[in-house]
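hey so u asked for the seq, here:
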Amino acid sequence: MTTPRIDPPVWTSGEHEAALLKSGALQRAILSSATFPIIATDERGIIQLFNVGAERLLGYPAGEVINRITPSEIQDPEEAKARAIALSAEYGTEIAPGFEALAYKASRGIEDIHELTYIGRDGLPFPALVSITALRGEDETIIGYLLIGADNTERKRAEAELVAARVLAERASLAKSEFLSSMSHELRTPLGAILGFAQLLESGQPPPSATQGRSIDQILKAGWYLLKLINEVLDLAVVESGTVTLNLEPVSLFEVLYECHAIVEQHARKRAVRVFYPKFDKAHLVRADHTRLKQVLINLLSNAIKYNRHGGTVTVTCCVVDDRLIRIGVQDTGEGLSPSKRDQLFQPFNRLGQESGSEEGTGIGLVLCRRLVELMGGAITVHSEVGVGSCFSIDLALEPDALPDPATASTIVAQRQAPPVSPASDRFIETRRCTLLYIEDIAADVLLVHELVARRSDVGLITATDSTCGIEIARTYRPDLILMNIDRLAASGLRSLRALADDPITARVPVIALTTQSIPAAIEKGLQAGFFRFLAKPIRIDAFMDALDAGIQRNALRLHPTLPVMDSP
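ran it, structure tokens below
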């Protein structure tokens, strides 16, 4: 005989809830929960329920708070004031810093989780995450509030530890950058004297003997290599510290490659390496930092020439991958790399066994290239085959909506190839001895510039060891040109420039900045501030003489503004 099946009664949700409430199971569960602090209030905010979790975490016995206080009275008072001020500003009405502010959003049906700081019975702050819900009767009027909390101590501790770790990391990074900057400056100062006076010996009269020339050549070769190493180490440290600033903008690939060609052409000719560039039907624009992109391409081109075979070729390609991406390739015909060496390419100071070879290098350039390309939103890859050569490819984002007219490329070529024309009016300028004021506190650099100026019959030199003295001398002697070291005098360099510009006597005297920090953004800022030109330390004689000529010409035109300009013969 089959036993009849008896199904359990079907409960509606309301009946189920009523049954639970009747049995007191739900209330006991709420009151006995030790994990979450649960507080219930009446419509005025007076505490009516304070469970075990609230007692345990806050330290108050339920009897001390029920029917006595509101939750806001055991909250951090400064936090309560701040919340009321913020809500008043947000809703455009004045809200008191009590329970009204705590329950303001809940009373309007807005679910919100608050980060509260309760003050425990022992007087110690206790962080909590609290959800506040308005309890409503059958007619939808508010009959109370339910506050369900969670211990926020560990989260706050983790946040504090994260902030502390970030501060320590930033301090360590800053300390490293300051150390490298300081060390690079301390190394550059004696190196500047070595390179400067070696150049004087090399270009002096009478010229050095053959043996002396070879020795001087070795000094200069080693000195410039050491300077390159110092600059690349500092540059890599700045990039890796995250403090480098890039100016991402539409950049013409044609213009950048044209500038690179002018720089590497002589290097390629010396090694009988031919460099081929793509034919541009239009001037493609990429999203990049102009100076940094040129730095990357020059590095890749220089490596392709340096590690090529005699009489080899370097081929630059530009291929549009899709509407948003262009790939720039630099292919050489060198020895190529094995897979194991290819995997080590982007390791700092790893020269892949070339340390004992005749080619100089630092092992930093490619690492820096990859970091810079990634900061510009691109990627760099390499394909290499032993006996065939290597190809480095850079993927960069295109600027499809900013393409100039296709004729732009030919126009740029015509402009670039046009020889510079000096103003004809300078033939009428009276030849006279110009005065250069050099503001510098490094004795070796003063002596070097003194020796350089001594080679010029048209220039006289006066010096000052600090900015204050330099300004007074400028006002007294009225020099035609000022050269100022803005590294050692950085704090007063711009102030001195402004002081000179504000004085009618010196306002229009060209000021050349001398610096070891050849950062493009800093140079651009300095030029906008009013410096006539920037010269890098250590001083290169040809660059110094060019800057001197440009400054003298600028000053001469300033002194003769109404002279007629005649056509060139």
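The CA atoms of residues 296 and 369 lie 5 Å apart. The chain is about 45% helix and 20% strand.
lmk if thats what u needed
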